[in-house]
Design goal:
Layout: E1 3-7, E2 10-12, E3 18-25, E4 33-39, E5 46-51, E6 58-60, E7 68-73, E8 78-83, E9 92-99, H1 105-108, E10 122-126
Parallel strand pairs: 2-10
Antiparallel strand pairs: 1-3, 3-8, 4-5, 4-9, 5-6, 7-8, 9-10
């Protein structure tokens, strides 16, 4: 069975950090570009960051630039999202997803339907 599983979410105070993991089972991630998306209650799904499968290029939404870092460890079949200086507006369910192509990867953050496999999401809550 092909699965993506996110983990690492939780409750954190403003200014704190979390590291999300996206682990694959049943297939290998190294041939896929990977995106992180989030969805807050009552809002549309928003692209956060993505990483290519070829040269490791990374892209970020303006709202998280300088605070979030995406990385991948193909040996562990896992992609990470390090989130620092968290703000209450970062509160959302975070999802990872696969994309077959690295073409127009930065723009793909605006088009979630270009992503194929999705995980079930992990809740991140930033609150004092």
């Amino acid at each position: 069975q092909l699965q993506l599983v996110e983990s690492g979410g939780g409750l954190v105070q403003p200014g704190g950090s979390l590291r999300l993991s996206c682990a694959a089972s049943g297939f290998t991630l190294d041939h896929y570009a990977i995106g992180w998306f989030r969805q807050a209650p009552g809002k549309e799904r928003e692209g956060v960051s993505c990483i290519s499968s070829s040269d490791g290029s990374t892209y970020y939404a303006d709202s998280v630039k300088g605070r979030f870092t995406i990385s991948r460890d193909n040996a562990k079949n896992t992609v990470y999202l390090q989130m620092n200086s968290l703000k209450p507006e970062d509160t959302a369910v975070y999802y990872c997803a696969t994309r077959d192509s690295n073409w127009y990867l930065e723009q793909s953050l605006q088009v979630p339907y270009e992503y194929g496999y999705w995980g079930q999401g992990t809740q991140v809550t930033v609150s004092s």
